[in-house]
What does this fold into?
Amino acid sequence: MGNIIYNAIFGLIAGGIANYIDPHPSSGGILGYIVLGIIGAIVGGYIGDMLFGVGVTGFNISSFIVAVLGSLLTLWVGRMVMGKK
It folds into this structure.
């Protein structure tokens, strides 16, 4: 149960930062930030590990950077797939 809570907090922080950085922020609310951050951590961790050997390894600064970059990439790809508003 604790692992789920840590992942939700990690996702909330990473997704919130990515949404703040994004020039077209979404209005998904807290749940949207959590989902975005978790998906971003998965995407960023996979790509970062393949290209640079740096993935999401826990609650540390490099993991947050990877998760935020993955979240930004997820937002960008989502806009390309869904179309611009």
